[in-house]
Amino acid sequence: MQDDPFARAVERAQATEQAQAHAVRQRRQQQWSSGNRTAFRTHATVFVAVNLLLFMIWLTTWQLAGGTSYPWFLWPLLGWGVGLAAHYAAVRNHLHRGGGAPAAAQPAAGPSKADELARLADLHRAGSLSDEEFTAAKADLLGAP
């Protein structure tokens, strides 16, 4: 740890901002994962219900035709099954690799307080700010009275 109190304040501010950003990413990941699991469960439920209905329709026509009807219900079952398997693979891959929301969906952030404090410290060290100006700017940035 450094002896300069201002440098320690910058380190604390950076650590706090990193912890907050990590917490936001974790919360966003949990919401994203929960939504993906719910969407897959809904897709699987509709898949089973519709294909069961198609099978029942085929079974009825098969009995009416005297057992000579072609099992046409297999084609939608297989086609939709491929889509359901792809959905499962996408959700499973996303959950295992720990991906969050797409980067484009995240808002661009301005400079953080830690960045501003570091910039003020650089200006003070370079002599661009006097001790009084530096103290006043730091207090203003940190919201001190």
Automatic annotation (TrEMBL):
Segments passing through the bilayer: 38-60, 72-91
Pfam families, alphabetized: 2TM (PF13239), SHOCT (PF09851)
Superkingdom, natural source: Bacteria
Start and end residues of each 2TM domain: 37-91
Record flagged with keyword Transmembrane: yes
Protein keywords: Membrane, Transmembrane, Transmembrane helix
Boundaries of every SHOCT domain copy: 115-142
InterPro entries with a match to the protein in the record: 2TM_dom, SHOCT
Protein name: 2TM domain-containing protein
Organism field: Svornostia abyssi
